[in-house]
Amino acid sequence: YAMFNGVLAHLEKNSSKYTDNEEFINHRDSFKSKAESIESKEDERSKVTSGKTKDKLFKREKVTLFALGVAGAICAYAKKSGFITVAESTKLTKSKLNGLRDNVLLIELKSIREKAELYSEAISKYGYPAEKLEEFANSILQYSIALRAKANSGAVRTGATKSLKILFKEADIMLDSIDRLMENYRDTQKEFYDGYKASRVIKNLGIRHNPEEEPDNPEVPVQTAGEGS
User: Fold this and answer.
1) Of 56, 100, 154, 216, which has the highest C-beta tally within 10 A?
2) What is the DSSP letter of 50?
């Protein structure tokens, strides 16, 4: 994409060189439009999950702490009443809940809520009256909504990534045509032609190497029509 921008910058800077070439101008404008579509789609892809993960993690932490308190009240009541099975099923720890996958945690939370509703009168004496249990149920609902939002954003991101691949292929086809049209300027506008060829180089941007591992060929030129195989 950086190469695309470099090519466009060079073509626009030297627009006076091809004012009499209508098709060249049309090809440049079409290529520019495709590059803008790529930028827009990448912006969509990168931002679609922004905030969704943080929101999900925040609500997971909140509901997990709430669940531990409710489960603790049920466990204490069950022990006192001799309900061994119930006591064991609500003997939970934060590390155990943290180790559960999101959907599995949601099942566990709903199980705790069901037990809380079953023993609501008893655990009200343990600091969990009806209004607090209602708050717990709402916390579970909010976590469930956050999970769905995260899952939906993942689907959108996947779709945007597939669209990007198509857009890049289409841009490459357009650029190949411009490569061929540039041959008209090889001799008549040599500086313009050479500058274009230089802008068609793809550079390894953002790749870090250790000093002893410097690549032998840090710049990989894009092969154009008519060059070697």
Assistant:
1) 56
2) T
Measured CA to CA, the distance from residue 104 to residue 16 in angstroms comes to: 64
| Pick from 96, 94, 76, 95: nearest CA to 86 | 76
Q: What is the DSSP string of 95-162?
A: HHHHTS-HHHHHHHHHHHHHHHHHTHHHHGGGT--HHHHHHHHHHHHHHHHHHHHHHHHHHHHHHHHH
Cα torsion 177, 179, 180, 181: sign: positive
- Look up residue 51 and give its two tokens: 């905030």
C-alpha span between 53 and 150 (Å, rounded): 6
pLDDT at 220: 43
Separation between Cα atoms, residue 103 and residue 173, nearest integer Å: 44
Closest by CA to 62, choosing from 127, 118, 109, is 109
d(C-alpha 66, C-alpha 135), whole Å? 9
On whether the CB atoms of residues 167 and 69 are closer than 8 A, the answer is: no
User: Over the stretch 190-214, which tens digit does the pLDDT of each residue have?
Assistant: 999 999 999 998 776 554 444 444 4
Q: What is the pLDDT of residues 13-37, one digit of tens each?
A: 999 999 999 999 999 999 999 999 9
pLDDT tens-digit profile of 137-154?
Answer: 999 999 999 888 877 777
Q: What's the confidence (pLDDT) of residue 152?
A: 77
Give me the residue label for tokens 């959907």: 103
